[in-house]
Amino acid sequence: MSTPPAQRIERLRRELNRHNRLYYVEAQPEISDREFDRLLEELAALEAAHPELADPDSPTRRVGGEPLTGFAPVRHAQPMRSLGNTYSEDELREFDARVRKILGDHPYTYVVEPKIDGVAISLRYEQGRLVLGATRGDGETGDDITANLRTLRSIPLRLEGPLAETAVIEVRGEAFMPNEGFRKLNDQRQADGLEAFANPRNATAGSLKQLDPKLVATRPLDAIFYACGELDGWNPPTHEELLQGLRDAGLRIAPWHKPCPDFEAVRTAIHELAERKASLPFGIDGAVIKVNERTTYEELGYTAKSPRWAIAFKYEPEQAQTRLRDIVVQVGRTGVLTPVAELDPVPVAGSTVSRATLHNEEEIARKDIRIGDRVVIEKAGEVIPAVVRVVAEARTGAERTFAMPETCPACGSKVERAEGEVAVRCLNAACPAQVKSRLRHFASRGAMDIEGLGEVLVEQLVDRGLVASPADLYRLTAEQVADLERMGGKSAENLIRGIEASKDRDLWRLIFALGIRHVGAGGAQALEASVQTLDELMAKSAEDLESVRDIGPVVARSIADFFAVAENRQLVERLREAGVNLARKGGAVVSGADGPLAGKTVVVTGSLEAFTREEAQEAVRKAGGKPTGSVSRSTDLVVAGPGAGSKLKKAQDLGIEVIDEAEFRRRIGDG
Ligand code: IVH
User: Fold this and answer.
1) Which residues contact 342 (CB under 8 A, 6 or more apart)?
2) Tens of pLDDT along 490-500?
């Protein structure tokens, strides 16, 4: 029996909303774009067949996303629209037919250009100066990420050439991470014991979301521009001239685009681009076809979310079929059990794939994946390979279903599923798989940086019972180490020296090395800046921790929970006895920790005379405070300028201290 349409529609809407959120808000997509598009297509078809079930809030009717918190919201002067898209040439022909019908006898041509797989951004130049850089957000309102975008070298702060003095030029484009930089960044992150980004787009979105522009500046980001929003003082008659104008002004445009006199030429250009795709230094997920004559745009107009003068033709991600030999379960540093597919090796998009993560048990059940199945795997761009679906027709009946083990495959103790989480964990802190990955993390380059302590050595040390906790490392002797396989006296001594040297690391490295959930190297640095010693940090409550700059409630809770565990406190004691440095070294980390707004959460609202919003937030940060976008009970101070509205009212209602610009400047010692 098939599901009634009303139920199916409801389900699809819920699913799509969830995936929209994962993609736009959390930058953590669970499914490929292609899968998302399939679900959206199914919903659109059902809605078309059942107009009585229409809903203005359906995911088929919105552009997607909500502004992030922590950045000031900005309303776009013109909405940032999205593009209609298709995977089929027939639909492309229909697009052309529609254009022809609307334009009648009016002649028109096309331009085909790459659809860059990144994050949409908008830049506003007034009299040639960059005054605002924003994300798309929901298309109407985005986030002010000017400070972050200013760190991209491909974004000019002043326009050059004929457009240098133009009143308003708003340009739209894509921020992205070139493949090469993405690979390097991920290698570095893995060496530092951090989670790798799944693909360049996630890495881009994750980077642009950083509250610290200095960190953004270290990320290999780039941007390419392909459209305009508000224009005042410039109105190029064709898209080609628009691109040329942007380029002359110093803005990067795509390295390839093709003018096409007719639809046949469009088809050829799309195929040519598909051929070139692999040799481009960044990821593209299709071609964008635009009517060249901008003078026709008004007549062609817009649908609810996209222009009628452009469409995206998306390329199918590369797929391959292979046999799923087995599902093995890996145990991570925090004890999470992850099922991994072992595959018959198969070439996809330029590399041989033999493993793919299956995420969790629910994912396996949802896709009904069984051991022995023939499966379709997919690698879109640089995405870690994923199992898309099972080839059910190829089943022989010999396939076996998979069940998550009840006990940990590494230590045999019972596993548990935390309330409300999909992850299954081994709770045995002494589990050898966990002990090994904790040690690897502790010793990694980004943490305590213990030279010579690699994976193979960690295996042996744990398996031989020589080391069960990072503190045990400091009791190892050269004789014990020299006894291990492939270790001579010389390398044993080197290792002991490496361990000895790690006693004198910066405090943040130790904080990071402890492996507290949600605490990365950046978080550890923020924590170090807020204390003099590790003991001080251990004494803080979750509430205290929340007022540390860049530390949110989830991280704060996780830190407090970590130090509430007796074993973890013992570990710190043993490290102290071993002589490991537990104090902040003088001047190692630049911070506003002692600044006049230290530890204060500050909201700036209304307009200030001497500061843009971004500059005011930067000033708060420099003074040690934490700027946030919305007023809540945890806000300590509100700086209100003329025009302040609901935020000011809320602050007054909550009895939060409100000061004006003059007082703000006095407090931060400005002028
Ligand atoms: S034009 C009003 N051109 O794809 C038209 N978009 O699904 C604005 N994109 O939001 C978009 N490359 O983030 C356009 N050459 C290109 C593009 C492109 C990538 C992105 C953009 C847009 C999304 C539409």
Assistant:
1) 324, 325, 326, 327, 328, 354, 355
2) 889 999 999 99
